[in-house]
Model the fold of this input.
Amino acid sequence: MTTLFKGASAAALAGTGAVGGIYFGTDLFKAEEVKKVSISSLIRDANPEKRLITATTVGDADWKAAYKAYRERNKGNEKDIWSLKGWSKPVGEVTLTEATQEFLSACDSNSKVEVSGKDDPLYQQVLSYCTRNTLVSDLIKERSNGKQQLDTSSSGSGQEAEWKAAWGVYRTQNSSKGTGKDPWGINNWETEKTKDVLPSDYKSKCAERVKKPAHKFDNEDYLNVLAWCTK
Done:
């Protein structure tokens, strides 16, 4: 075999190897395509500060706020981005109003669509128009080692003993604090902290805190509610 032939053969083999390498690499890349997940699952992982709105009534405050945001985004458009049935473009200032059943249904169906990541336009739309802030109450329900939030409604009854126990914990943990120095600013603190009777404003303090935005388990409001408003 001549030197020239040997050189040509080596070049040909090298070229085949290069092409083969590219070919197999492409196959490998295709085999490792990004796995898609539902938007609802991705929100839990990528945006824990948000929760899908689960209320079922169009007059719910969270739905009204979400629908307002959607209408503002589509203001001036003859056709909205989700092609909602009965859509009419807002004229003038967009104000709070009841959502529509079509809007709630669109949020529900779109949240189940699978996407490859949070940059997907539909993911961003669902995040913007179908979610609310994660609250202390959500964290209590999701990870509180069996503890349950006490009923803070004025009509709530049957939990007198549990409320008394919760108040006892608050008193004990803050007994050394003077007037106006307790964490929640209980009225007449100097007097109330000596009593085991639930102060008139204690339930309302709990009710305020459970509605605070929180998505981390070291959040102060979450930890306080867990200690002072649960059974």
Summary: The chain has ten helices and four strands.
